[in-house]
Amino acid sequence: MIYSLKGILTVIKDNFIVVECAGVGYKCITSSATKEFYSEFIEKEITVYTYMSVRQDAIDIFGFSNLSEMECFKLLISVSGVGSKAALGILSQFSPEHISEIVSSGDSKALTTTSGVGSKTAQRIILELKDKIKSLSFYSPGFKAPEVSRNKEEAIKALAALGYSSAEVKPWLSNLSDNLSVEEIIKIALKYVGKGV
């Protein structure tokens, strides 16, 4: 099992990064949050925490910017019916701390805002993880997610109409000023999405 990789970040794409270690490029499938975290480190040395999935038809490496995200990913895929794509989708939309609060409070509706996660799957995640999540390092009862300004909410809706999910834009949205207009937020969003960073 590959626990982590330390090397040069050579590629950033929509859903993966490539880390070159001793001349070998390792493709690491990531959440939008991890991709955004590493967006400023292209051609620089980074450390990525990894989870390797070995199946009959494929070997995949999933990369995470921190141990909490990796721990949360492993917990999510342990739930019956939750695959790696859904787990990364949830982690693209919510931090591990936010997920722990969603699970501990039983807020299954919040999870259904993630693409590919229906109400039955969301309820199963709550049911199967409610006890397990309390023993993990990122467990954060009472966690409050940062509020999104009205303009940012409107921009998210407009971008959704253009085919971009909130999971694609939310990770970097918090870095933008609340004073920006809806049009300015959309313009910046399209620039980021176009570059794939």
Q: What is the percentage of strand-forming residues?
A: 15-25%
Strand segment count: 5
Q: What name does CATH use for the topology of the largest domain?
A: DNA polymerase, domain 1
For the sheet with most strands, the description reads: 5 strands, antiparallel
Radius of gyration: 17 Å
What value does the average pLDDT take?
84
Helicity level = 40-55%
The dominant shape is globular
Structural class of the secondary elements?
Answer: alpha+beta
The CATH architecture classification of the largest domain is Orthogonal Bundle
Spatial strand sequence of the major β-sheet: 3-2-1-4-5
Return the CATH class of the largest domain. Answer: Mainly Alpha
What's the total helix number? 9
Q: What's the number of domains? A: 3
Describe what this molecule looks like in 3D.
This protein has 197 residues and is an alpha+beta fold. The protein has three domains: 4-64, Nucleic acid-binding proteins (OB fold (Dihydrolipoamide Acetyltransferase, E2P), Beta Barrel); 68-135, DNA polymerase, domain 1; 150-192, Helicase, Ruva Protein, domain 3 (Orthogonal Bundle), CATH 1.10.8. It has nine helices and five strands. Strands 3-2-1-4-5 form a five-stranded antiparallel beta sheet, with helices on one face. Helix 7 crosses helix 9 (182-195). The chain is globular and about 45 Å long.
